[in-house]
Design brief:
0% helix; four-stranded antiparallel sheet
């Protein structure tokens, strides 16, 4: 079955960096776009970034463009999100997502807290 497992979250000071990782299994990883989304208390789910099958095209929300970088390793079935210059408003639960044959799959999420 499809499984997505996020890791790498934590507490970081404003201006700091974190690298999130999502390990995927149960499907042909290299055949699908992958995405990162986030949700903070009181806010809806926000799309952050996605990357195409081969990793050659990446897209970002305006709120993170220039600070976050998505990448994938199709040999290891992982997709990462490098987050730099973090702001308090980046605090959220971050989820890895894959849409496969019309169904949407999610990991359990990893918490990112940006606070001094």
């Amino acid at each position: 079955q499809v499984q997505l497992v996020e890791s790498g979250g934590g507490l970081v000071q404003p201006g700091g960096s974190l690298r999130l990782s999502c390990a995927a299994s149960g499907f042909t990883f290299s055949s699908y776009y992958m995405a990162w989304l986030r949700q903070s208390p009181g806010k809806g789910l926000e799309w952050v970034s996605n990357i195409n099958e081969g990793g050659g095209a990446a897209y970002y929300a305006a709120s993170v463009k220039g600070r976050f970088t998505i990448s994938r390793d199709n040999a290891k079935n992982t997709v990462d999100l490098q987050m730099n210059s973090l702001k308090p408003e980046d605090s959220a639960m971050y989820y890895c997502n894959a849409r496969i044959l019309g169904a949407s799959y999610w990991g359990q999420g990893t918490q990112v807290t940006v606070s001094s």
